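User: I'm putting together notes for a lab meeting next week and I want to include a structural view of one of the chains we've been expressing. I don't have a solved structure, so I'd like a prediction I can at least talk through. The sequence is below, exactly as it appears in our construct file.
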Amino acid sequence: MHIKLGQLDIYIGLSFAVVFALGAFFSDMRIYLISLLSALFHETVHLIALYFSGCKTAALNFSFGGVKLICPGFSYLSFDKTVFCTLSAPLGNIFAGALFYCLYALGGKNIFFEISAVNIFLGAVNLLPLPFLDGGRALFSFLGKRSDILTARKISSFVGICSLVFLFLVFFLLFLSGKYYLFFLIFFIYCVIGCLGDKDSVFT
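Assistant: Thanks for the context. Below is the predicted structure for the 204-residue chain, given as structure tokens.
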């Protein structure tokens, strides 16, 4: 399905609808909706940052992997604007999480804590130096300004491999403890698939 809002194109694929339905069925509906809205907030912050950086056209793609913002002019931005647009969303999630935690600490409802936890987790995850995440893209841009593209690609991918090894060790420790290992296994598989599908990574 294709929806057009001004200069923003929104594409909702069948795979997203299937994943959304399965996720809603097998998980806590409130947490699931908070996660989806937090992801939309994440991409909206990206969109606002891109708009103020000069990129006027973009598309939101709802697919199997979740919600992804596509901007054809992103690769032509300067280094400072690239880093600004890349890091704005995860930092926005962390800021929102801190704000909702303050509301919860002041006597707010439990849902404020849940919104806080989801946003801080989403922001922290996106700061991981994996090639397909915001942290990895920021690292690639930083290295690309100080060296050639091939060197930047190799270094950022090496850091990504080290990050995956670290995540696997965390999963292994959680598996031994018998707590949260299934969730972390799914997250680890998601990270591996994301790295394999990233065109700027030597994983491919």
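A couple of points you could mention at the meeting. DSSP finds seven helices and four strands in the chain. The longest strand covers residues 58-63.

User: Perfect, that's what I needed.
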